[in-house]
Amino acid sequence: MTYSKKLRITALTLGMLSATAFTTSSHAQDDTLLPKLPDPIQNLASEGAQVRFLGKDNGVDGWIAIKNGQEQYFYVLPNGAFISGLLFDGQGNAITLEQVQRLREQNGSELLDTLAADDPVTAVKDAQKAEKYEFKTPSEQLFWDVENSNWFPVGQAGTPLFYAFVDPQCPHCHKLLSDMRPLIDSGKVQVRLIPVGFKEETRAQAAYLLATPGPEKVWWSHLEGNVNALPAKQEINQQGVQRNLSIMQSWKLDATPMIIYRGKDQKVKIIRGNPKDLDALISDLGART
What we know:
Layout lengths: L2 H12 L6 E2 L16 H8 L3 E8 L2 E8 L2 E7 L5 E3 L2 E2 L6 H13 L12 H14 L4 H10 L4 E3 L6 E6 L4 H15 L4 E6 L4 H12 L3 H9 L15 H12 L7 E5 L5 E5 L5 H7 L5
Parallel strand pairs: 1-6, 8-9
Antiparallel strand pairs: 2-3, 3-4, 4-5, 7-9, 8-10, 10-11
Helix pairs in contact: 7-8, 7-9
């Protein structure tokens, strides 16, 4: 995709920008803890916007706010001022596009996929039209709901995968992922974690996992006993977590971990709690990232 085409795509998605930020320094990402949400962006979150941290590139904190299918991009300057629009480096590269791509890869957010489409508006309309007329069996509808939940991947792309609803403080969830880690690290499986919370504190922690730019790193640090890795920041919008909880409730999934996957026989399968045989589970996975 050419540079000019990328800009056309982004302009089409964003609409009118109030300003564009230009900077000349290196744009390496700074994977620090999630910074405090600026008040104007917090106001958007309070109105129901989904807010995600894009990372710190070129010395400025980037945020995306999504409401009613519309994206806005904000960059907070070191002095506390902020600007809305696209971020470019000194060579004219659109850093915002790189951040969005990074967020899509890390968080698996289907909502952000429209930015990568050649014609995002048409892509959305076609998907909505197809969905409207497609009949789904209950098991396929369940799997569709799970695929379109708010999840983040743990493990390498291109490997067999399964989904798991997890609570940040659930000891059984910790055991599942700790037992799976050798298989994950060796490239045998990817787990797409769907964070939920059954208490106020864990809902806030789950929201943090969805908002941070490096959820996999944060998750492992949390499991390793770092008490500061996964803070319960109440100011982070919890709409994504509530969406995950509503999927569990609508399908009467009443415990964590809850594993859902497509088997090699193409059937949708559910495991409540930790599987008895991890190797048997891996060998039965029929879908890949």
